[in-house]
Amino acid sequence: MPQGLMEQGWLTKARKCMSPHFNARPNGEVSLLVIHNISLPAGCFGLPHIDELFQGCLNIDADDSFTELASLQVSAHFLICRDGEVVQYVGCDDRAWHAGISEFNGREGCNDFAIGIELEGTDNSGYTDEQYDQLILLTLELMAQYPMINVNNIVGHCDIAPGRKTDPGSGFDWSRYKQAIPVV
Questions:
Q1: What pLDDT does residue 1 have?
Q2: What whole-number distance in Å separates Cα of residue 79 and Cα of residue 138?
Q3: Which of 52, 118, 120, 141 is catalytic?
Q4: For 130, which of 13, 97, 107, 178 is 20 to 30 Å away at the CA?
Q5: Are residues 144 and 138 in contact, defined by beta-carbon separation less than 8 angstroms?
Q6: In angstroms, rounded to a whole number, what is the distance separating the alpha carbons of residues 45 and 66?
């Protein structure tokens, strides 16, 4: 299991792209990992718009679909791009704004205790081998750094916001991913 790849909540090998959309965790707990997907515009990959959205500087005139994103304050801890690049926006010890209205095991407000990982993709697009490889490595590192995260505390956005969210979608191979995660 990887260890020592994080310093004060920041993955040393990730590209840093700091977001202003975060705040302190109310009690410092990190016990949940939430898998999301994102593409901007929908179904388009490799563009700078995800970074811009999370940094609060998205040009809403760049695409007609961006109008609904005006003034949105959102972030995630990590993005894993189609080519496997890992980008970090918020330190893991801080609360990123990725889950929205959410509940896990009777607890509301999952942002308070969750780390959010975005995969560049759509519900149905499938994900690349590079993304799975990096997601597995990142998950193992997060489990080493935050022992309350275990295989039972790894969910999709759809699981904590059912009826409101569908990601990471049917294109995500949960079996492939979870078989690589040790049961502790």
A1: 35
A2: 11
A3: 118
A4: 97
A5: no
A6: 15
Annotation says 7 is catalytic: no
pLDDT digits (tens, 9 = 90+) for 118-147: 999 999 999 999 999 999 999 999 999 999
Q: Within the chain, what is the greatest distance between any pair of CA atoms?
A: 48
| Token digits of residue 156 | 């999709």
Q: What is the CA radius of gyration of the chain?
A: 15
pLDDT tens digits for range 5-60: 899 999 999 999 999 999 999 999 999 999 999 999 999 999 999 999 999 999 99
Tell me which long-range contacts 8-11 makes (C-beta under 8 A, separation of at least 24).
8/91, 8/93, 9/91, 9/92, 9/93, 9/94, 10/88, 10/91, 10/92, 11/78, 11/86, 11/88, 11/138, 11/141
**What is the model's pTM?**
0.96
Look up residue 5 and give its two tokens: 């790849």
